[in-house]
Write a structure and sequence with these properties.
It is a single chain. A hairpin with a 5-residue loop joins strand 1 (104-106) and strand 2. This protein has a two-stranded antiparallel ribbon with strand order 1-2. It is mainly alpha-helical and 197 residues long. The protein contains five helices and two strands, in the order αααββαα.
Length: 197
């Protein structure tokens, strides 16, 4: 650094971290402040990465379901489940992005106001349909778990290994994520209760 450059301002990332450390010391408050600072600084990058990752999954559901429509004689609704889930997931992601980018407005108090209430209503309807469709998928996929045959395409119990296992694990992953979210949430509440505000 040459002598003509100004010193870094406290508006920089490291300046904000140093200020939070001075203000909170080595307490739980500093960890909360640090996470808030990092979240604000990396929020855009993380958001784009999450949207890309979340879009990859419904696209994979759509592609696998379309490619394997005729490869599940035990229950032809399993590829249909993937197709509809993938299409709904893509539609929900696009509508959510539109809602965030085009239709939301923050007022002076920092509260988010929607300029497109009909878009929010459509999203709620789509989410309710996705939930009902998820329940249907649970019934169709888990009901045949013990009887499905991956080896003999002529058997009445046949279902393509890719389409069945992708359906099975996509549904199971939802339950794993829900359980992990509950455990992490309870852990955070316990930490906040133990270490104060």
């Amino acid at each position: 650094m040459s002598g003509s450059e100004p010193p870094p301002s406290y508006d920089s990332l490291f300046g904000k971290i140093k200020e939070a450390r001075t203000e909170h010391g080595n307490s739980f408050g500093f960890v909360k402040a640090l996470l808030a600072i990092l979240g604000a600084a990396l929020g855009g990058i993380v958001c784009v990465a999450c949207v890309a990752a979340l879009m990859a999954f419904p696209i994979a559901q759509l592609v696998i379901g379309l490619q394997n429509q005729e490869k599940c004689t035990i229950n032809d609704k399993i590829p249909l489940y993937l197709i509809v889930s993938g299409a709904c997931g893509c539609a929900a992601a696009v509508l959510q992005i539109l809602d965030q980018m085009c239709c939301s407005n923050t007022d002076s108090s920092g509260e988010r106001k929607s300029k497109c209430p009909c878009l929010g209503f459509i999203l709620h309807l789509l989410n309710m349909f996705c939930f009902a469709w998820f329940i249907c998928g649970n019934v169709w996929v888990y009901k045949i778990h013990k009887t499905v045959d991956f080896d003999n395409p002529d058997a009445p119990e046949y279902c393509g290994k890719l389409v069945y296992l992708f359906s099975f694990w996509s549904i199971t992953a939802v339950y794993i994520i829900m359980g992990a979210t509950c455990v992490i949430g309870c852990g955070c509440v316990c930490l906040m209760a133990c270490f104060g505000n």
